Amino acid sequence: MAKEIKTIGVLTSGGDAPGMNAAIRAVVRKAITNGVKVKGIKKGYQGLLNEEIIDMNARSVSDTIQRGGTILGTARCMEFVTEAGQQKGADICRKHGIDGLVVIGGDGSYRGAQAMSRHGVNTIGIPGTIDLDIACTDYTIGFDTAVNTAMEAIDKVRDTSSSHERCSIIEVMGRNAGYIALWCAVANGAEDVLLPEKYDYNEQAIINNIIANRKHGKTHHLIINAEGIGHSTSMAKRIEAATGIETRATILGYMQRGGSPTCKDRYYASIMGAYAADILCAGSTNRVVAYRHGEFVDYDIEEALAMQKEIPEYQYEVCRMLAT
Fold first, then answer.
1. Is 192 in the active site?
2. Based on CB atoms within 10 Å of each CB, which residue in 9, 172, 218, 231 is the most buried?
3. Ramachandran class of 208: left when φ > 0, alpha when ψ lies in -120 to 50, beta otherwise
């Protein structure tokens, strides 16, 4: 029989993502509706080990859904990778009466959640990452806001690139996942896109494409470069030297993580947060919430981490076709 959950904790871990506050808000209010107390854990697993734990009520999350980032804060924690750190975290949960834990973050955060479940603390993961790189889900909190932020910034850079007849390389985030780059390449009408999953490092092919397009009357050239490939500034110098065309690199960086979340990120994060609170209160553990084929579902963490995610081949081919 599942143990009764009387108090749950909620934390955000890894990189921040717009919509995390909507998820926190939903976890808190759904748990309270279910008759369960809630404690907020500041600064992720590091804050858990430091016992930075606060009581939360419905008012604690008022006026937060529109805010970017995370009201609980986040931090990296190397100590929590160790068995001793994980055992300490579980002991601290028990010390503070925390029976269950909701962890909002990416795959690294899931491994921590997995460890907490192993040490007897019922734990549920929610996918919070702008990278869209969690294989078990079609949606991750923050991706929609991040890709829209990048799209708007790229539109502005393209305007000036066109005015000066330049080649522009714009580097977007995503770590080793090319989803932000792919979506922006289609949405911004890029002539080239470089994805970690697809790029063969044939820089001469890009140079040839730029020269061919210029001969056909194209006055500017936009390259979307994924963070996992990087080196945009040195690439720009090489392309300019090879083509004679002024080439500038723009690295969008952490601006993509900030800002008020879109309606989609607020809505989906809210449903995921409520879903996590419900299944945790029902006694589930070692599960991750996901959005799959139009439904909100949950998976075993081991199953979720074992899944592989690749760039959809058809979408990539469409991106390349539209650029010609």
1. no
2. 172
3. alpha
